[in-house]
């Protein structure tokens, strides 16, 4: 009897789950979706991968991720909706206003890349920005599959200038700004895993694609390690970078350390969490996934949104490599502000690290496809 009951229960459970997961055929005749509202995002994912990102973790993917932050952070609990309504697409709908904020230098490339899609796909600007970022990240080996909720109404006004943190800002000012948008200092550390796939086009005069770590095309933990490495304090900073940077040991190989990243790695509020991320792929994946899920819906009413995460491609798996001190560096350069034991890591062989310029490992920026 117990056995029979279990069979009956199982059958019911199977029926219920079949109903939950019944998929609808999408109008394009190609995709199916759990909710019809997600169909357009399946199509958009294909388009982005083929026409914008080449399914790689290249420059356009990096820029799309940065744009998610610069849109969402246009929000303030303290000042209210008149200064911005968060992840609402205002950054592309009111670009001429928001681009006047110097902290938004360089985001015009991502806007130019994505904005034309608003007339090709029936999606709102806020949905486009956050979805493109999630698709972009999926191309970076080791990244988590980000959540994507659909249904952000279009912004009705631009975000106020001054809401986006700058690399030269004092660390307490950065924490306060993030807190005013709903993020704790440790959530900011989790978000800064993004700087593992990041390069600057604007901070150093006459230089583009200046990487923040030695592996700018993989979502690994190197940035958390390399931000902790002391540079040659006697070398003058390159023209234009002074306030935004602190010296780093791979300057000759083209790398830079952001003042803000370094200050966050040293603050009593975040130093231990920063160090915890070093060589901890699982922690950066989980932390980034959760913090990005929150960032992507800043200012939005999630009860009116539909979960279309299924349209975000499954990410490229992590490269099977532990964090290492780049060649020419080592543990003697560590600047540690937290007492917890530091992982024992190998040093890459050789005199100096070569930092690739393109996702395929090419060292000539002009050869990169995107
Ligand atoms: C304290 C907060 C932050 C500061 C001060 C900051 C600052 C910067 C700066 C100065 C750049 C270089 C821009 C350029 O010159 O082209 C940059 C790049 C980037 N940032 Fe941040 N950032 C912060 C947080 C974030 C967050 C939360 C994300 C994502 C969720 C993010 C994602 C990126 C990405 C992907 C790039 C690389 C863009 C590219 O390679 O073209 N950043 N960030």
Provide the gyration radius in Å. Answer: 22 Å
Bound molecules: protoporphyrin IX containing FE
How many domain units? 1
Task: Give the neighbour order of strands across the main sheet.
Answer: 1-2
Report the uncertain regions. 1-19
**β-strand number:** 8
Shape: globular
Helix content bin: 25-40%
- Class by SSE composition: mainly alpha
CATH class, anyone? Mainly Alpha
SS element count, helices: 13
Which quaternary structure do these chains form? single chain
CATH topology: Peroxidase, domain 2
Task: Please provide the ordered H/E string of secondary-structure elements.
Answer: HEEHHHHHHEHHEEHEEHHHE
Summarize model confidence as the mean pLDDT: 93
- Name given to the CATH architecture: Orthogonal Bundle
Major sheet description: 2 strands, antiparallel
CATH superfamily: Peroxidase, domain 2
Distance between the termini: 64 Å
Please report which band the strand proportion falls in: under 5%, 5-15%, 15-25%, 25-35%, 35-45% or over 45%.
Answer: under 5%
